[in-house]
Amino acid sequence: MKQWRFWLGIAISLVCLALVLWNVDYREILDALKRADHVWLIAASVPYVSTIASKVFRWRLLFPDEHQPLSRRNLFSALMISYAFNTILPARLGELARAYVVGETERVSKSLALSTIVVEKVLDVLTLLLFLILLLPFVPLPSWVQRTALIMTPLFLGLFALILALTYQRGSTLRLASSVLKRIPHLDADQVTKSLDSALGGFDVLRSPRRNALLWGWSFVVWATGALFILFVMYAFQIDAPPSAAVLLLCVTSLGMTVPSSPGYIGVYHWLVVSTLLIFNVNRASALSFAFALHALTFLPLTLAGIFFMIRENYSLQTIQQEALVSSAEKPSTVDR
User: How far apart are CA 206 and CA 111, in angstroms?
Assistant: First the structure.
């Protein structure tokens, strides 16, 4: 973990917390929490579970046919552990941990698993940016949201185009990489080339139009159910805002997690929620009580589930953290069995 990033995240979280807590009547926050409609909170569990299940189904599709069928149970376990890592630890090693755990349980290359996660993240960001575009006729997006979208859209479209180029020019890419690597002294060029070949295998599914359609379809389901979950929690807290506010909250909080923050996204997450709801003229105390509740409902179950699976699989945070970092540069022969 880089110390400067950790302390920068702490500083940003503290500033965001100060901004959202400044000049707020805490009695109003407590009253809003007490008035929450538990029927809507129970109903919110349906889209919540659907979101997680959709992510597992989509992730399974990202693995090439020769590695199918993967166990949905093992994929779910690895996904939950990654959420726990990203929430508890400051270094955001959740995705490396996910690749390591699924590599151990499913006996697939960890570099392959990591490349599927890269494709997944690109699909997620592009889907969220598409949601923002669809919101334009209905919501006057604030300038800070528009600027973020304008920066991220070309970046991730370019990244997706690069992934497609590597997919269709895999042989040429490997030959070029091999010729360059062989010029580097004291480097096992063949081993590194094999690792690169395994990693590029995670992009192969994009060659199939049918698989592509399924991946985009599941991406839409993942984030549509996520927006529905937020909408139901809004109803539970009597937030007076249109359904489009739930979609905007989903996009802003999800894309905003790229900002350095303390473990658990404390402060940054709450500031993003409150700032978004203020666009819809929601009372500040109501917005803050909703932010606290939404944060807890979103992250607490995932973190507890991740800890449960770590205990059941006899993992420890330290073990996964160390092994995940080591396995990111592992030899292909240790996993391709």
Answer: 17
Q: Is residue 248 part of a domain?
A: yes
Average pLDDT over residues 76-81: 95
Q: Which of 41-55, 199-213, 234-248, 265-279 has the lowest mean pLDDT?
A: 199-213
Tell me, yes or no, whether 88 lies in a domain.
Answer: yes
By CB atoms closer than 10 A (0-12, 13-18, 19+), residue 244 is: middle
Measured between its terminal Cα atoms, the distance across the chain in Å is 31
The tokens of 142 are what?
């604030």
Place of tokens 């939950």: 80
Q: How many domains does the chain have?
A: 1
% of the chain surpassing 90 pLDDT: 37
CA atoms of 164 and 170, how far apart (whole Å): 10
Find the DSSP H helices in the chain: 3-21, 26-34, 38-61, 72-88, 94-106, 110-135, 143-168, 170-181, 189-200, 209-236, 243-256, 268-278, 284-312, 317-327
Name the nearest CA neighbour of 266 among 9, 6, 13, 4.
Answer: 13
Mean residue pLDDT of the chain comes to 84
pLDDT above 70: residue 133: yes
Mean pLDDT over 82-103 rounds to: 85
Residue at 1 is within a domain = no
